[in-house]
Design a protein that fits this description.
Chain lengths: 188, 150
């Protein structure tokens, strides 16, 4: 008999013959995407989402493969954010990020807490969405912590940005295509 | 209309078509009514036969180029008097250079150019206003602009 263990669950699916398993994923976790020549400090143009067209500063690649970027928030309203590198145009402009420490930000930073997930519950589950006093306090401290991280990273960045004339305005402006622009001819 | 640009030995030409498009060279020998031998040792054009149809004549001549001169002789003549440098001063050459520069601008450069053009236009309009005021409405539109622009 071919060495495949057959477990028969009563009342459920009965496997007929030995089924070929065509694809077995050997890795449990998907491999993070290879970064195409994007360097920390590089200005990227976001192509999709709420901030499409905004120019942001790239900080580092997270373990999940997504890119960590920040506006900086004061300049263009983009907070610390994860972005898929496929939805980004890297420009050749770079900002000095030597003084910026984004070490404490990782994928866990962006994970939704239970309180967040249950915030908009309605109807039968509405009670779950109501936060207790201690949960509200926890939320408050969490948000405070986030604001602090944002500020610490951004302050260092803005200091570097101010050194180049017009860079501040550049990051505040959105990228757009007009009638006569030829995107395939543009050098970024 | 008097013709001034001739196909002659020493005429500086611009190649319009082919892999060497945009480069300058000198006519070294005329083969027949349709082909010439050109050479451009300092502009990266190999000595070659090329149809006249692919060339534009410029108004410059290379002094000291003799018929059938070898590349070395041409190079020496260019060292003495460089017509290619003179050509680079012409308006046409400058336009080509400007276009090439603009094509190389990156995103930040394009943004800076936009801002500078706006500033220049603002300067021009304030100048125009003051001129209009001073000449009582009959202004000459010759306000001098300020900023250097790519």
């Amino acid at each position: 008999m071919p060495g495949k263990k057959r477990t028969v669950r009563i009342g459920n699916w009965y496997k007929s013959d030995d089924e070929k398993v065509h694809f077995v994923r050997k890795r449990k976790v998907p491999r993070p995407s290879k970064l195409r020549k994007i360097v920390p400090g590089q200005v990227l143009i976001l192509l999709a989402g709420r901030f499409q067209g905004k120019r942001v500063v790239f900080l580092k690649q997270l373990k999940s493969g997504l890119l960590l970027v920040t506006g900086p928030f004061k300049l263009n309203g983009v907070p610390l954010k994860r972005v898929n590198s496929a939805y980004v145009i890297p420009t050749s402009t770079k900002v000095d990020v030597n003084g910026v420490n984004a070490g404490q930000v990782d994928d866990e930073y962006f994970k939704r807490t239970q309180a967040q997930r249950r915030k908009n519950e309605q109807g039968f589950w509405a009670k779950r969405g109501e936060l207790t006093a201690e949960q509200q306090a926890a939320e408050k401290t969490r948000l405070e912590g986030k604001r602090k991280t944002q500020k610490s990273i951004d302050d260092a960045l803005i200091a570097a940005v101010k050194k180049t004339p017009l860079m501040k305005q550049y990051l505040g402006a959105r990228f757009s295509i007009g009638k006569t622009t030829r995107p395939h001819d543009l050098v970024f | 209309m008097v013709l001034t640009k001739f196909v002659e030995v020493g005429r500086v030409v611009k190649i319009n078509y082919g892999p060497q498009e945009g480069r300058l060279a000198t006519i070294v020998e005329i083969l027949n009514d349709k082909r010439v031998l050109i050479d451009g040792p300092t502009t990266g054009v190999q000595r070659q036969v090329i149809p006249i149809r692919r060339l534009t004549l410029t108004k410059f001549n290379l002094k000291g180029a003799t018929r059938g001169a070898r590349t070395g002789v041409i190079t020496k003549a260019i060292k003495k008097s460089d017509p290619f440098a003179q050509y680079a001063q012409t308006l046409a050459a400058k336009k080509v250079a400007k276009k090439a520069l603009r094509a190389k601008l990156n995103d930040f450069d394009r943004f800076r150019v936009m801002i500078l053009r706006k500033r220049r236009s603002a300067l021009l309009s304030t100048q125009l206003k003051t001129l209009k005021k001073s000449t009582g409405g009959k202004a000459q539109t010759q306000a001098k602009g300020g900023n250097k622009k790519k």
